[in-house]
């Protein structure tokens, strides 16, 4: 079909007719009179060579051709609307903007409840799509490909050449956990005891050398890793039912149903905090809708100072 001369308003009218199944209600939906909607329907029938809608006791019923057209035309109109919204004043209270976020597991747990509650209050018609990823450097490929509006994870390690922008959101400190009743359980965990135990290492990226190992290596020491796994939230229940010790982010421990079965202690080695940041592509930096999303996230979770 030659697209030259096709009136976009006809497609808007078709979308309204599909939604309302009534010429009168469809006209009210898009601000047109009933005669104007009837004329639009006549032009649509001529354009597609099909009756499109037939009258029935329950209102207009779409033909098979109309049903086939509904989904692709609806998607196309939504994409056009999203594209044009860049040039308009963004009103979160009325916007039906859709956002795609790519999150690693921990930010999903920490941020999504706050974000969904904020959207319910501030932007009730906005929708979210959440994608998951594990390796921090995957964030760069996701943003380069335009598969997400922003990512939230530990910042990428690979060079990004200024095209990927980031802003810290929150920090997590490390704690050591062992089961209550562990033979080595005490109110303080010293370094010799720490080194004598079998350790569980959580490494979402599949490495066998974490921040604890780097700190120990700087002192010429090493620990015995008896178990390594990529799922952080599987660690607390495993520790609660074994004699393993694990060093995890405090937020992951606090969120675990096994928390009450665990002894939580400060690590006997100095460890830095883990910073989680949102990252976005430079091409989205000036977009008012994207800026609103980033400002909303920033307002929900300010950086908290690490506890010593």
In short, what is this structure?
This protein is an alpha/beta fold and 308 residues long.
Describe the 3D structure:
The protein has helices at residues 8-20, 23-30, 34-48, 64-84, 105-122, 138-145, 191-196, 211-218, 235-240, 250-254, 288-300; strands at residues 53-56, 59-62, 98-103, 127-132, 150-153, 164-172, 174-179, 198-202, 224-229, 245-249, 262-265, 274-281. The protein is an alpha/beta fold and 308 residues long. Strands 4-3-5-12-6 form a five-stranded mixed beta sheet. Strand 1 and strand 2 (59-62) form a beta hairpin. Helix 1 (8-20) packs across helix 4 (64-84) and helix 2 (23-30) crosses helix 3 (34-48). The longest helix is centred in the N-terminal third of the chain and has 21 residues, at 64-84. It starts with 7 loop residues before the first helix and ends in an 8-residue tail after the last helix.
Number of strands: 12
Mean pLDDT across residues: 88
User: How many strands, which pairing sense, and closed or not: the largest β-sheet?
Assistant: 5 strands, mixed
Q: Helix and strand string, N-terminal first?
A: HHHEEHEHEHEEEHEHEHEHEEH
Going by helix content, strand content and strand pairing, the class is alpha/beta
Q: Which segments are poorly predicted (pLDDT under 50) over 5 or more consecutive residues? A: 303-308
- The amount of beta strand, in percent, is 15-25%
Through-space gap between termini = 68 Å
User: Number of helical runs?
Assistant: 11
Helix content: 25-40%
Calculate Rg over CA atoms: 27 Å
Strand order in the largest sheet: 4-3-5-12-6
User: Tell me, what's the shape?
Assistant: elongated
């Amino acid at each position: 079909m030659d697209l030259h001369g096709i009136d976009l308003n006809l497609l808007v009218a078709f979308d309204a007719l599909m939604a309302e199944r009534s010429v009168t209600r469809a006209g009210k939906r898009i601000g047109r009179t009933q005669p104007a909607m009837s004329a639009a329907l006549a032009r649509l029938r001529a354009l597609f060579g099909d009756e499109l809608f037939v009258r029935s006791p329950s209102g207009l019923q779409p033909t098979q051709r109309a049903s086939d057209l509904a989904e692709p035309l609806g998607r196309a109109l939504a994409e056009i609307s999203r594209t044009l919204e860049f040039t308009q004043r963004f009103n979160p209270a009325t916007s039906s903007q859709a956002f795609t976020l790519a999150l690693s597991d921990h930010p999903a747990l920490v941020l999504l409840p706050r974000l969904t509650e904020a959207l319910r209050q501030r932007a009730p018609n906005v929708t979210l799509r959440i994608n998951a990823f594990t390796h921090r450097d995957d964030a760069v490929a996701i943003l380069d490909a335009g598969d997400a509006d922003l990512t939230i994870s530990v910042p990428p390690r690979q060079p990004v050449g200024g095209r990927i922008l980031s802003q810290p959101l929150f920090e997590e400190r490390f704690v050591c956990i062992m089961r209550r009743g562990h033979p080595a359980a005490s109110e303080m965990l010293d370094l010799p005891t720490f080194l004598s135990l079998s350790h569980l290492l959580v490494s979402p990226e599949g490495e066998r050398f974490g921040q604890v190992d780097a700190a120990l290596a700087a002192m010429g020491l090493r620990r015995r890793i008896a178990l390594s796994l990529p799922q952080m939230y599987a660690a607390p229940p495993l520790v609660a039912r074994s004699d393993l010790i694990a060093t995890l982010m405090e937020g992951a421990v606090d969120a675990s149903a096994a928390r009450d079965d665990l002894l939580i202690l400060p690590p006997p080695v100095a460890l830095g905090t883990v910073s989680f940041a949102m990252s976005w592509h430079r091409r989205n930096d000036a977009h008012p809708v994207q800026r609103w999303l980033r400002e909303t996230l920033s307002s929900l979770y300010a950086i908290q100072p690490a506890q010593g």
